[in-house]
Structures are given as C-alpha cells and as structure tokens.
Amino acid sequence: MLLPNARSSYDEILRSFEWRIPTRFNIGHVVCDAWAEKEPARICLQHFSPDGQHLAMTYGALREKSSALANGLRSLGIRRGDRVALLLPQGFDTVVVHVAIYKLGAIALPLALLFGEDALEYRLRASEAVAIVTNEFGLPRLQAIRAKLPALRHLVVAGGAVARDGALAFDDLLDQHPSRFEVAATNPDDPALMIFTSGTTGPPKAALHGHRVLAGHIPGFQLGHEFAPQEGDRIWTPADWAWAGGLLNVLLPALTLGIPVVSSPAQKFDPDMAFRIIAEMDVRNAFIPPTALRLMKSVAAPRSRYDLHLRTITSAGEALGRETYEWVRNVLGVTVNELYGQTECNFVLGSCAALGVTKAGAIGRSVPGHDVAVLDERGLEVADGVEGEIAVRAPDPVMFLGYWDDPAATEAKVRNGWLLTGDIGRRDAEGFVEFVGRDDDVITSAGYRIGPAEIEDCLSGHPAVRLAAVIGKPDPLRTEIVKAYVVLREGHERSERLAAELRDWVKHRLSMHEYPREVDFVDDLPLTTSGKVIRRMLRLRAAAE
C-alpha cells in the first residue's frame, strides 16, 4: 500500500503498484496503536493556540485516552456497527473519539459544527445514531432536537464540561474506565465511517465506508505530499475534519504515516491567521481548498511577513484554476498538487510536481491503484479532449460500501462496473483530467455546453474580484445564459461599469459565447462546510428573479 521512493517515475509506479491490504485491518489500530506500541513518545498531534500556548499529544497518550473512551462507550451499551456521531471542531478530543469508535468496531459519523438544528436532525435521524459527542457550542442545538430522535440514547459533552441536563461528561468516561482495550478484529470491508455528501445538487446522502478506505488514500496522499513522510513533515488544513477532505485527505493518512497533524480553533477562515498558523507551527505540508487559497491571495507579500517553510500543498473540493495555481507557485514558491475525488470515492486523481505530474487547470492523473476514465452516456470511454462523465472502475479500496439504507441510489451510482461521479471532465493525451463541472452545473447556451469552473477561474483573475460563482439562468432564446455572482475585494465599488468590465474580461480571455451576460455583486456566496459553492441555491435565486 505504500509507494516506492521518488527515484521511480510516475509511469513506473502506475505499472508496478498493487494493493496489499491485510485481511485484518482496523483504522483505530493503524492510526494509533501500531505507533504507540513501538514509539509511544512520538508526537502525533499539535494544537495551535492564538495566545501562543500551543499543545502536543503523543501516540502513547492517544492510545490510552482512546482505549478508555472505547471502554466507556461499551459500558453505555454501544456495540459493533452502532453509529456514533461527532459534532466537534479540530482538536485532540475529536481524534480520541474517532479512534475509540474504530477500535470498538462502531461507525463514526462526523458532523460539521456549524450545522443548524434541521441539518443535524436530518443526519442523526437518517443514520439512527445512538450517541453523539459534542462540546458546549453544539450542546444547545442537540438538546433542542433530542426529543425528536428516539434512537439517540447518549449525549456526551467534551471540552472539560461537566455532566448535566441528561448529558454525560467526556472526561468522566475517560477517568472511570481502564486505558487498555482489545481492538475489534475488523476486516477491510467492515463498516467504519459514514459521511454525508455535501448536498450541492440535492438532499445529502450518507456514504458508508469500510476500514479499507484509509488504506486506499495512502498512495494519493504520498504522491500529493511528494513521498511523505519526509524529515520534519508536519501537516495542517483549515478544512473541517467532518469533511472527507479534512478527515481522509489529511488527518487519518498523516497519523498512519507518523506525520504530526496540527489542529486549530474553529473560526471563519482568516487568510492572515492561516499564514500565522503555518509559520508558528512550522507547517511543512498543507491541504488548502481552492476557496481558501483564493482568499489567501488578498495577503500582500506573505513570504516577507511570515516565516514559511512549506514543502507541499494539496488542494481539492472544486476546480483550483490556472490563476490560483500560478499565484501559489509564484508567490509561495510551491506548486499546488491538485487532486480529485468525491465523498463516495475519494482521492482517485492526483498530482505530484516532484515527478513532473502537474498541469495548471487540470485536477490530476489517475493515482496508482485507481482506474479512472471519462465516459459517454453509453458507458464507453471517449476520445482525448472530448467531454464526458468522470468514472471510477469498481471495486476500489476508496469506494463506498453504499448509501446508508438507500439501495436504489447505490444501484444508480454504480453501473456496469463503473462508479459514476456526475462530474463532467475531459482527458488529454498525457492522461491529465480537466474538470468542467457537475453534470447539473453545466450550462447549455445557444447550443454550447459551458462549464462554470473555467469562467469562475477567469473572473477570479480580475484584480477587483475576491470570489466568483457562475450558473446557467433560464432564457427563452438561448435556453440558458451565463450569470455570474461576484464578491468584490475591499476598495472596489459595485457599478455597472465594473460589471461591463468583467464581461469584457471573460469575453476577451475565454470566448465570445462564455462571458456572463448578467453580473450580480453579492456580499458572500452560499458555501458547504467544505467550501464548495452551492450552485443549486444560486440557480433557485436566479429562477425567482
């Protein structure tokens, strides 16, 4: 499952790679106990504190705390296969809970701390979670809906909270139970993790993954971070660990490889704070979603203001675009290794600048061990340069076991041996895939099929634009017209003159048929917790105009 060293070429790695996943495989053991048995004093976690009082945890401490919690959860009657939810920010307690759930053989259900009552009720009810661990911030929302969730038997509050109002104290569960635990003898296909999709195009669905999902992420992680682990590697992401990007692109693979993971307090993304975290914690590796990278462009001369030692940056979640790719390379001195995947089947395309596998505007090539193709509506591979649906051949270690309690949706997602992503792309002669847009997002205008990603990237290159999102607005003449929603940088005023300038900007840089015929200036864009633009909401807004 681990890659050879960097002396091999990318094509050699592709040809020689084969999966070797043990018949007994448990995420909790791999990310924690396997290291604690041989190097208990090794640092696995570090936490950034704005006051400078940074914290650290060893693999040995993580083993003891997670084992105590696993015993505590078992004492509550939680058994193998039960769903246990987490409503927590980045931090040590979150990792302890994850590891304890996996050791027990239960199923972890990470939830974004910013979810409101309706979103939480929907996910907890659909998953029939029997317990949830949260903090003081999440507690009131859960207490407000608890009576509507008959399956939810236990509510545990972390962060030093005391037991009250029917909620148990996290610290009590640890203190009252032994710190030795026999890890469940799980196999790679046993359920371990349930992650709800982002809901960008419809109601969120619960993707169920086996323990093997972690093994499946290791090759892509190692390539994206250019043959990690290297001496001094230390990784951080602003992405919520409740998202597949934060959990599976960073936290679990890094712990597996012995790379310390830096956590930071939950907050609205602040570009200056991001640079401060990277500098103060000596972050060498980072996973930064495209939206966050675009916001970091607003910080002037970051390498002069901050002592940065970045070795690698990976990015995913939406198309990065040429403008941001070039900015990172020119300003930060690092080439972004873009990658691609979905909640159902993640990290199947990737890049590795160290091997020359990188291209501005592309989301990568097939990662070793994953067979990715671009298919037409008949399920046949299209020619190079032709648009089609990105698909992944089954079986695959990162591929989900299915949608929870929804066999019809699972059957529709996997057809004729291929998992259909619903994303439109095109592959070039070198094997690089360019992301065009989700099938639902592709705009049909006057007979042309137009992907929003390229236009958004172009708009983001204008000095007045902070963020941009593009949709198709219904039009009786052209079927749809391109409509742009734009968030401006500070110091720029909304005006029809600027809107015309942006239309010309796209018209002259892309094509006459792709420019936005309508430009709306907005204060912000609707985003998922993973930073993706929810174009569905923008389409509803445009249709109501």
Automatic annotation (TrEMBL):
Enzyme category, top tier: ligase
Pfam families in alphabetical order: AMP-binding (PF00501), AMP-binding_C (PF13193)
Coiled-coil region list: none
Cited Gene3D superfamilies: 3.30.300.30, N-terminal domain of ligase-like
GO MF entry, a single one: metal ion binding
EC code(s) of this entry: 6.2.1.1
PROSITE patterns named among the record's database cross-references: AMP_BINDING
Domain AMP-dependent synthetase/ligase: 33-404
AMP-binding enzyme C-terminal domain mapped to chain residues: 454-532
BP GO annotations: acyl-CoA metabolic process; fatty acid biosynthetic process
InterPro entries given in the database record: AMP-bd_C, AMP-bd_C_sf, AMP-binding_CS, AMP-dep_synth/lig_dom, ANL_N_sf, Mitochondrial_ACSM
Keywords: ATP-binding, Ligase, Metal-binding, Nucleotide-binding
Stored PANTHER family: ACYL-COA SYNTHETASE MEDIUM CHAIN FAMILY MEMBER 3, ACYL-COENZYME A SYNTHETASE
Family in the record: Belongs to the ATP-dependent AMP-binding enzyme family.
Protein name, as recorded: Acetyl-CoA synthetase
Lineage of producing organism: Bacteria, Pseudomonadati, Pseudomonadota, Alphaproteobacteria, Hyphomicrobiales
